[in-house]
Amino acid sequence: MKNAISWFEIPTIDIDRAQKFYETIFDIKMQAMDFQQIKMRMFPLDNPMEGVGGTLVNSGGFHKASATEGPLIYLNGNPDVQIILDKVEAAGGKILVPKSTISEEYGDMAVMLDTEGNRIALHNVPEKYR
Fold first, then answer.
1. From edge to edge, which strands make up the β-sheet containing 31-34?
2. Predicted TM-score of the model (pTM)
3. For the domain bounded by 7-129, which CATH number is listed?
4. What is the spatial distance between Cα 40 and Cα 9, in angstroms, rounded to a whole number?
5. Kind and range of the H or E element at 18?
6. What b/e sequence results for 2-12 when a residue is b if at least 16 CB atoms lie within 10 Å of its CB, and e otherwise?
């Protein structure tokens, strides 16, 4: 098993607002993937067959945002989580745990609250280990 995670879905209430938030803080463009009962916005992925993919999702209630419960997803914060954190509040989010060093080997982490009420973590790996 190359990665323990292969796919993730982050719940949204307002998918357009959530898309704008994540595109702003990560400086990315997300791709729409809408179906009859579900709307998704995909995070960019260089090689879909090798990497971990994920989306923002509005499923009409099947997915529920939470600031305190459920799994905590760590998104890629390379090269430095602080670059992303510096954009969070202006984009409508909130910083719950500021940039904190895990260790010299494992890098830094932080936790934010997105515009939809999801607790989302960030992690960056030290440059010498990338």
1. 7-11, 53-58, 39-42, 31-34
2. 0.90
3. 3.10.180.10
4. 9
5. helix 15-26
6. eeeeeeeebbb
Q: What DSSP character marks residue 50? A: T
Q: Has residue 38 got a pLDDT over 90?
A: yes
Instruction: Report yes or no: 55 and 33 within 8 Å, Cβ to Cβ.
Output: yes
Residue 49's pLDDT is: 73
**The amino acid at 52:** V
Q: Is 63 exposed, middle or buried (0-12, 13-18, 19+ CB in 10 A)?
A: middle
So where are the chain's domains? 7-129
Is the pLDDT confidence value at 56 over 90? yes
Residue 14: CB atoms within 10 Å: 12
98 phi and psi, to 5 degrees?
-65, 170
Return the residue matching tokens 């791709």.
31
